[in-house]
User: Fold these one by one.
Assistant:
Number 1:
Amino acid sequence: MTSNRPGPRSKPLASERLRSTPGTSRARQSMEQRSAAPLLFLRQLPRWLLPGLLAVLLVLGLALHGIGSAIALIAVGLVLSWLAALSWPRLSSGGRLGRAAVIAAVAVAAVIQATR
């Protein structure tokens, strides 16, 4: 009996080239090119590491008060913003709205925590 579960995620080769989104501006192509190396690095890490780190930063940011809390939340917001910007062309309007709402909520939480 075979399993329907997907196999282990294959690791990309260092020479693997990421293609930029066709028909985009030079600024977008530049952002995608600058993001290629960090994305390849993240892909080689254990799958749970980035979400786990973001979850820890989010919990610390919400549990603590002051500037340290705001910094943790800003870090979460920056990573989410970067990933949203990279996926933006392929998102539906609902997906765009959801990502923007989450990023705005994290930014508001950072401001609130910084003033406590």
Number 2:
Amino acid sequence: MGIGRVVFPDLPYPGYSWRINHHIGRVTPEHLYHILWAANSFSRSSDPAVDINNYLIANSQWTPNIREDSGQPDAWRDYQQTLSELGLIYSLEILAQITLTPLGLAFLDGSLGFSEIITLQALRMQYPNGHHVAISTTQRAELAGTVYANISSFAELQKLTGVSVRPAVLVWRLLRRLNELKSEPKITVDEFESYLMRCSQNDEFLSCADAIALARIKGTTLPRLGSRQRRNAQDWIRFLDLTSIFAVTQNRQAVLFISEFGNQYAAEIDEISRVLERPNSFWHLDTLSQADRLRWYSEFGGVDLSIPELPIANTEASEHEFVGGVEESDQRGSFEESVAGGNIQLREFQGINFPTSPTNLAIQVVYSAELSTSAHRLHDQMVLLIAQTCRMKGASVYEDPGSVDLLVQHQLQEFIIEVKSVTPHNVITRLRYAVGQVLHYDFLRAPETRMSRRKVVALSAQIPPTSWSIPFLNNHLDMDLLALESGRLRVYSSSQVAIQLFG
């Protein structure tokens, strides 16, 4: 494939760059797990920052970062931005109390490992986003005298100028394109800064690759963008080096290329990239209200089954990937052999009543730090969300710690609800298990009540509207399906009572 005429994009606005926290490329699995564990464990203490800092120091995690004004360590103030930028917690600018996202809970639970979390979030990270919203003093000075001088936020500036890019996907596409052009499929820091960081749309990888390949032949290059953009380029390269699909050679200058794992699963990563390039896969801001930013963290920090399954890296050292251990099997519903068929022992649901309203009910609203030591944190938070949703509709809510997640009575009808936390790797297995459980519980419940019953499977993940699971449950089995979409319950059902109850 030859190199065509190079048409390379101009910067969409003065000072354009891919802003990223400089700590993000320096995290280790241990760093990430321990600061997230501490954040979750001490989130409702009287002074979370002090408790988190003490924990990090005691466990030799991160650096203390002694403050000049007080002489006290404050690692949490500096490093918590890494968690919110990765979508593992909601920004403290949005929620005053530390609150983990579903993805953060899944990482603590051990259902997703470090490499998978980092690779997935690197590919999903986009501009504009709901995390980087403030315009810095330097940026404001660069915009002075332009039509963007009075723009109110960084995210709105990017929206107005047509920025819509996922940098990691762009990098992947560019390296694959360079290989097609018979140009070395590697990127130096200089090339990253001078070429890649001029792109504001993912389809610009074609002209970007052509420009780099031509510059290599001619021995020329575009000018560098500046010291701030240089730092961002270096931080992005460090971040991408943490993923399973990229690697970096450290010689005199860092050089980024596709890893052995990335080459092995190139077709799968290509398909993920195609899905993440679709306009409907992007977070789109409206007015950049608090609701907009909440939606960013809920979407970016959610488990999304609409993205094709990311291959699992060969992780022989599982302690490195799963610092807190791999997720334990859920033993709920495993009746003793001596119990003929099983036995459901209902009690009123013991979860906490949260003061809220039905129109404002989302998983971050019912987040409970009391579940910090639970082996299935995401599962239990999903149970809380469903229970509270039903209570707000006036329903009676019951549970059995040994079997049924939730049994709800509403309008002379019962709903048997089985909740599963899922990933793309285990969704089929766990969905089948859930179906078997609700059928079994329905059988056990039949002699106990004359109420009609509906069977409900709830998955703590976003489901694509084209998923086979929807007609399988709704049409084939006449069951209801609940999903977690942008932090809220999404109901798939043919029953108007179910739609009104859970919606």
Number 3:
Amino acid sequence: MEAPREKILQKVNEWLARADEDLQLAAYGLTMRARVPPYRLIAYHAQQCAEKCLKAFLVYHNVEFPYTHNIRKLLALCADLADWTAALEDAQELTVYAMTARYPGEDLVVTDEEARRTVNVAERVRTRVRAALPELNL
């Protein structure tokens, strides 16, 4: 029985590692010395961080989730297992950034302030999820 749990923990760690990379890239983007940093991409990677953290939490609890970038849907799935989802309600705002960096015609102008807010929200999601997964020694 130990092997399946180890595989789940490995998968959770993989989700979290990718989330960390997204957050690292988003935070780095805010420090770029470009005339106008790529705020759209910063917001996208912040959204990806939050999404992957929530999916890691669901994997940890063996909850299947749909193929979605919708943070509201992922938070709703997490709400059955956690009391912290209401505190992250504003993370739902990140969903819109999942598409804007990917597809032409879906462009959304993202300001410096909005980009910074997305990184802040992603950091809060990351912190909450990691605190809820003490077994991983994070």
